[in-house]
Specification:
Distance between the termini of chain A: 32 Å
Number of strands of chain B: 4
Oligomer: heterodimer
Order of helices and strands of chain A: EHHEHHEHHEHEH
Order of helices and strands of chain B: HEEHEE
Radius of gyration of chain A: 15 Å
Mean pLDDT of chain B: 82
Radius of gyration of chain B: 16 Å
Structural class of chain B: alpha+beta
Low-confidence stretches of chain A: none
Number of helices of chain A: 8
Strand order of the largest sheet of chain A: 3-2-1-4-5
Helix content of chain B: 10-25%
Number of strands of chain A: 5
Number of helices of chain B: 2
Distance between the termini of chain B: 18 Å
Largest sheet of chain A: 5 strands, parallel
Chain lengths: ~150, ~100
């Protein structure tokens, strides 16, 4: 299973609606259609993609006011939510982890679930740092994008 | 949804301008700061680019004798910490300043 975080999922959702939206969103502004296509290649199969409810909540909080593309947005959510797996972890679990102080609830829970997954797909450098420190396999979208700048 | 205008901007150019101006404040020596471009947004009000960068900063307060414990990690006693900063760059590519930024 491959676990996906909020920003990476936002890239996926926007890319499925219209790839040109990706660079227009503040949180995904460094990405292009090419990065979206790479993400799709990494995911390979939606049936093997997993996330947590906290991530969906963050995605919706950030994209729900998408304006005239609302219908397309809801359609893509239906597709993604029906094909991917959603795993629930109690918020209490996050509070009991030392990483919570740095990462907050969502990313701390992601870190816990990632320990049982083959890959963590993230667009959050700090989460990637913690995942690497825990020996978790990471597809770090920020790192991949920044390779173009050196 | 926040809207940016990165279609016609060279992100690499913005990143390199920021890098040239902050490289001096990064720790030198035995580790790579993993400097990254995180976001780039044109600030319409100010007519400048607001870009977010991140880098790893070595915690010089940690010594070999510092106990590695969950409590120390919780209160920031990690060997490295990722720092986020906002950099403002004008449309001519001139570095304006480095600002605090909370993710």
């Amino acid at each position: 299973m491959k676990l996906i975080d909020t920003n990476a999922l936002i890239v996926l959702v926007l890319g499925l609606i219209d790839p040109s939206l990706i660079s227009k969103n503040k949180r995904t502004s460094i990405y292009s259609e090419g990065d979206f296509l790479k993400l799709v290649q990494v995911i390979e199969d939606l049936d093997k993609l997993i996330t947590i409810p906290n991530v969906w909540t963050e995605v919706d909080n950030l994209l729900n006011r998408i304006g005239y593309l609302k219908y397309e947005y809801v359609d893509q959510l239906k597709v993604l939510m029906s094909q991917t797996e959603e795993r629930y972890l109690s918020s209490n679990i996050a509070l009991s982890q030392a990483e919570f102080w740095s990462l907050g609830i969502t990313d701390t829970l992601l870190l816990q679930v990632a320990k049982e997954c083959d890959l963590l797909i993230t667009s959050d450098s700090e989460l990637s740092d913690f995942a690497n420190a825990n020996g978790i396999n990471v597809y770090d979208m920020v790192l991949e994008r920044n390779k173009d700048f050196f | 949804m926040s809207v940016t205008n990165t279609q016609n901007i060279d992100l690499k150019k913005l990143f390199l301008i920021a890098k040239d101006h902050i490289i001096d404040i990064l720790n030198d020596g035995d580790y790579k700061p993993d400097l990254r471009l995180e976001e780039a947004k044109f600030n319409e009000e100010e007519g400048v680019w607001d870009i977010i960068i991140s880098y790893l900063l070595k915690n010089e307060n940690i010594t070999e004798k510092t106990e590695v414990s969950p409590l120390n990690i919780a209160f920031g006693q990690r060997k490295f910490e990722r720092i986020y900063k906002k950099v403002k760059i004008d449309t001519q590519g001139k570095f304006i300043g480095l600002f605090m930024y909370t993710k």
